[in-house]
Fold these 3 entries.
Entry 1:
Amino acid sequence: MIVLHPGAEELPSPTADRSGGRWPVDLTGTTFGVVGNRKFAFDQFVDLVARKLKEQTGVSGYVRVDKPSVAETVTDDALAPLVEQAHFAVTGLGD
Amino acid sequence: MTGQATRLEMDADPQLVYEGFLEQGWGDGLPIIPPTEERVAAMLAATTRRPEASIGTVPPGGGVATVEKLAINAVMAGCRPEYFPVVLAALEAVMDRHFNLNGVQATTHGVTPLIVVGGPVVKSLDFNCSTNVFGGGNRANVTVGRALRLAMLNLGGATAGKLDMATMGHPGKISYCIAENQDESMWPPFHVSRGLPEGSSAVTVFGGEGPHSVVSNFLRGPRILLNSAASTMSALGSNNMYLMGEAMLVVGPMFARDLGKAGWSREDVQEYLFSTARKSIGELKQAAHFWKGSWKGHWPDWVDPTDDSCTVPIVAKPGDIHVVVAGGEGRFFAAIPGWGLGGFAVTKAIEPSPKEEER
């Protein structure tokens, strides 16, 4: 039987590992990225995570961009510094 | 008509096609109709649009929704080809920027688009607008709602735990589609009240929680009748109380007749609910979400958070409470809280099919 592909063929499969093998094994010297999503506790949370990462894993850099509002997505242009510099990122915080 | 979707060779057993699709991450967990070339071609014959034409990219994943891709998902959902113009209008509606589909798909809240179908297609395509209107059992309602949802999953990548982070979700995230019971309404059709011409068919999408049942009766007039709905709509745990946004009240035919005969218009109902579906600051202080200015940027300026007697509405203005007549006989409303940050109602006309255009 011939059936037609129902998904987004230009994107990775939903079941695929989308990391592209880029997960760092050793975080020493890496840069931690953050997309601030303007949730109430985000600043406190991410500051704590950044401090712990530096203390416990050797992360040395930190780059942050913020969403325009809690419900609006960040643009590709705004994301550019994070894409260029960060080795891994926290991109949101649920509440 | 041919499009550009990849053709896949699979075993002819429909169960194996279903399981193969699940392995690829396609679908909602329920069995699907295999989207063969013949079935997709029949779906595409119900629109004048070209298969390769793009409707846009579906957030948050960003897959391109071509007409053909949507037709494939409509086949999988079990749609009859005649339903396809309704599915097209629904997808275009949720992809309107005002709806904020990116947020709706990704939020921890349980919001999902409710499709409200109105106009002549309700009868011509046999949508259920009456008894058990939110329940199953009607092919048009269930498969149109499911087709939109499958497109949001397969093209928008809204897989639970990956890009869909809903803490709870709700069953409407499988299918959520009702039709307006215009025969029982004394008010203009919902889509006409939103600017479309009389006689047109349309869908309105609204991002909502599941329907909350409200029991009431008309024995003591419109205000007493609506007080029960107002109370349910202004629950302390509702997102609307803190974020405003929009809300919906689905009015059963008994109450629609009662309100109409009493001379109440849709706007009267909106005004009354706006003035009564409220909580005082003192009451809100007893709720956990009244916290560190969680209302800032959302509540109208006239609300004074330092005054315990000040009452807070569920939305910023009466027109943000949508009032739709649907359902069967009985003493019930359905209240549907919104998310507050998106899912704002969008109405789109349903294009006539090529057969209808010939007439």
Note: The longest helix of chain A spans residues 42-57.
Entry 2:
Amino acid sequence: MKIIEIAPLINGAHRNQTYNGFVPDGWALMPDDLTAESFPFGAVEAEEIDGTMTVTAWTAGTIPEPEPQPEPEPSMADRMTAVEDAIEILLSGRAE
Amino acid sequence: MKDSIIKGTGNSRYLKSAISASMTFDQFKQMLIAGTLPVDLFGANADGWNQLGTALNKANLLTDATAALLGLSGDPTINAALAAIANGRAKIEFGSYVGTGVYGSGNSNSLTFGFAPRMVCINGTTAFMLAPYIWGDPHFATGEFPDSLDHAYRQIVTVSGTTMEWYTNGGNSYYQLNQSGHTYNYFAIG
């Protein structure tokens, strides 16, 4: 099971984590059998059940466009090859 | 410790009573039935045992020296000692969260544990990305190690009680370990 923060973030998502037996104030237990499309983007309804705030309804929200991934950096081997190539070009020029 | 093994020969223990020597058998019987017959269990008779067990006394159960090692004083019970052991041992917790896509100050991530975290490790979205946090350090670092140290960012970390919060000082949600829809695994030691 998970717990989620009842209040949404600015983009409509809800902070969440694995349930460890402790539900902080402002958070609610999310039952395993509750289908949560678009998680963690959605609207939450929660009420206290047996003394524990529990999510009773989930309305799927809109998932924002994925953010651009950081540009992959060249590997160390690629960098070494580039340096070797540059040296070779330089040396070739000097030899002429 | 050893168990006691009784012979069953009817002579394993001594009794001693403060009853009057002039007490009649009827008086003795009445006091016995009424639960008013005074006796001491006056020790074990070794002849009545195949093996005498380890005594259940302070020396064998919880000495003052052992209690002091657990930080206990006075006359602590075994239960109090067990509680001290349970409270003092290292705790570990595993879990996961799904990234929400936000980042930066005011958009922190949070994890709440069942104890005050002393060390937390969160794995990122690449094989190289692992963010360790050690108790007392206000930062942990993330980046695509080992090739992109120039793209490493610090996470500003605060721990309050059993809750840890963090946000990245640069980059985007990737570096805050909070990419939208990505599942992050963590473990915490406390």
Note: Strands of chain A lie at 2-5, 16-18, 27-30, 42-49, 52-60.
Entry 3:
Amino acid sequence: MRHIRSTLRGVAGAVLAFATFAGASAQSQDAARAPLVVPWTDIEPYAYQDRDGVAGLFADLARELGRRLDRDVSFRHFETALAQAAAQTSGETDMLPGVATLPFLRENNVFSDPLARTQVRILVPTENVDAIDPETVSGLRIGYVPPIAGSATTDFLARNEGVPYEQMALALVHLLQGRLDGLLVPEGPMLALTRTLQLDHRVQAIGKPLLVYDRVVALSKRHADLLPAINDAIADMEADGTLDRIRSAYQMGVPPPPPATLTVGATHFPPYQVIEADGRITGFAVEVLRDLAIRADLDLRFVPIDAASFGAGPGPDRYDMLPQTAITPERQARMDFTLPIETDTWSLFAARDRPDAPASLDELSGKTVAVTANNNGRRLAESVEGSRLLIVGSVDEIIDALLDGRADVGAYATATLQRALERRNLAGRIVVRGEPLQSTMRAPALRIGLGVVRERVNGVIPGYLVSEEYRAHQDAWFGEPNFWTSERTRWGLVGLGSVVILLACLSAFQAWRQRLHDRYTAEVEAANARLDRQNTELANLNADLARSNRELDEFAFIASHDLKEPLRGISINANLLSRSGGLDDKAHARVERMIALCVRADELVSALLLFARLGKPDDKAVRSRTREVLDDTVRLIQETIEAANGEVVVETALPDVAVAPDKLAIVFRNLILNGLKYNRSGRRTVAIGFVANVEVEGCSVRNAFYARDNGVGIDPTLRDKLFRVFSRLHPVTEFGPGTGIGLSMVKRVVEDHRGTITFSSAPGGGTTFYFTMPLAGAMCGAHEQEIAA
Amino acid sequence: MTRAASIMLIDDSLEDAELIKTILEMGPTEVDRFLHYETGDAASDYLKGLTASPQSGEDLPPNLILLDLNMPGTDGRDILRWIKSTDPIRRIPVVITSTSSNPRDISYCYDVGANGYFIKPIQFDEYTKAMNTLMEYWFRVLKLP
């Protein structure tokens, strides 16, 4: 952003050069050896304030001239370009180098020979270069920033449609959008702008310049005597390249268009550029650039250059490109770079027997640092106050200086110096000190004005960097030399053998595992098949069982019906006979007995049906509030209890159970009725309760309900008979009739719910039945606590 | 209001038929007619004849049918379904008299349209009491078609 803004100001400055304003009268001053006063105002790239004072084209020229004239130069700041020009016109200031030959300056100034030249040309999009002839074209929309001087520009704008802009950048944007056909601009500053925006490949100046003007040194007439010396100095500067350097630094020159064959300058700088004894030019950067040129369809010609030419960088009169160089801000100002190829580092090097040698820039003060003239290492070392530079001619001389002690430390490109050390088998004697001083990208460099070439190379770089060719170059130029020594070869073979053996073992192991896996898989599959078969069989069996259960249930009903029918027939006949009135007392008693037996048989059949159907599983997860079921049961048999002069006592809290209420009722009813029936006590009692833990006949029972009666007790020898269906322990005459099915049903209900039933008893001492039932979830713990309390 | 009862009993058990007839004769309800059919087929034939020409007093349909379920041949379930799907006799109330306490039988009968389900007691006194209650209910309490 800052670049763009400063460049725009540069453009504004260039335009300002055409402005006219009233002059001021000259004043004569005696200024024999006084400093030459140079006016400046803040317009990049002509003059601007930087860290070290006034910088820019005007400042550089002024200092250079002052040095060559042996005169001090002092800068005087003005707020505006107008004020600056007015000061020079009026004679308030002495010298303004780099300015155009503005008419109003002539009044009180003399002009030197030209320092630089600026031309105004037509700029069009690159794709339209061949379609537009600026000599004849008419009717185009042309953007320009007024005022524009010169008759040719006036004619051109008259033929076409001039569209005035305040900012050159906006005109450029409109040109690229297609809203304008061309721009009429001072070429140098415009090039600076497009280059800053990385759009220099999208536009191109065409045709002859419509306006050309020189930049000169305006010298106050008071100092006219200095003019010959200034012209001599300019000639010298032109001769020794100083002017060229300054012009290109500030883009005052207009670069020629890209040539058919690009010239690439190469110095001997291994491993990047290598000039062989036979003059052949090669090296990592050279070969990489050759590959890139093939891919980008560029024609290259490599020429050897000396260190000074390398230092000057690519330029119109020297060469077009460098194969590769580090991208630094200073270089970016005067040359173009493609996308970076690789990262480059600079490090400090020292002899290994110098452990005290500096390891960072901070420690360079007071030390002698070996550098070469044009390497970035020199700039890094120079930046440290108090460092002493030992400038030598090559990387090998840096190494020599470190070995013989002339230098404490060397500063140089890390990879290049290491490569040199390897070449000379000195890798162990010279070592890198500390972290790299700087890390910079390397890229091919181009002279300014080759934006089209730059973009073509940029187009192929990303693909090239991942290619085999690029890797091959890296290996060839940066790989370890002579890596396969005989010892390494031997060890390599040993290693390879080990790897082969290891791989063989590994594959054998894998094969073994695969076999195991296969066998295991086969077994699992077989087992699965068996399981499937068994599941199918189980499903079939379950279906059979369900059908069988249904049929059995039906059978129980039908059997009970069919058994009852003849009983009913006998009973009805006996009843009719009994009521006929023709029987004597004895016969009547027998018929009544027949009727009673029929009733008893009917009860047995009904009981049997009930018992048979007890085994039917509960429909769903059920739950009974035990206490409520018990109370309901007692209420239903209340008359029987009272007839027996009995009572039912509930002694503890009763936890809820996961049993259907009707089945739980069967258990309570039968136990209570049993306890009351087989009982000779005056007050017959059945006590119901729950214990968390109880010992019964040597067995521990947990979470048991109990029903304790004060009845006749049970003879232990009859224990096995107790729960058998239809078995009765006492004759009818003793305790009356019964089906003998009651306790069987209790046992069946309990066991159907995975409970157990047992009892403790002594003949004459009453009986306590203990039974367990699945408790209903969380209630269990609460009740246990309640009971324990 | 007492109304004359015309009862049809369909039951293969002669004992039951005799007992019911005896109970009815002894009971408070005046029974005009007591028809007993031992098979379902015979009963349905009679009922079909009625529907064809209901003119004479003899041909008037019974106003209560007592039906046993388990019979040889056409069984009570088939008779019940036929009665309850045939106009106009489907209006005659049918009370099932059976010894079966199978819940499936009970559900089936009510589903098909039985008007009552009566499990025959084995003891004479209970049987008498139950039958009298039945008669009381159907011929004194309810209004029949």
Note: The longest helix of chain B spans residues 124-141.
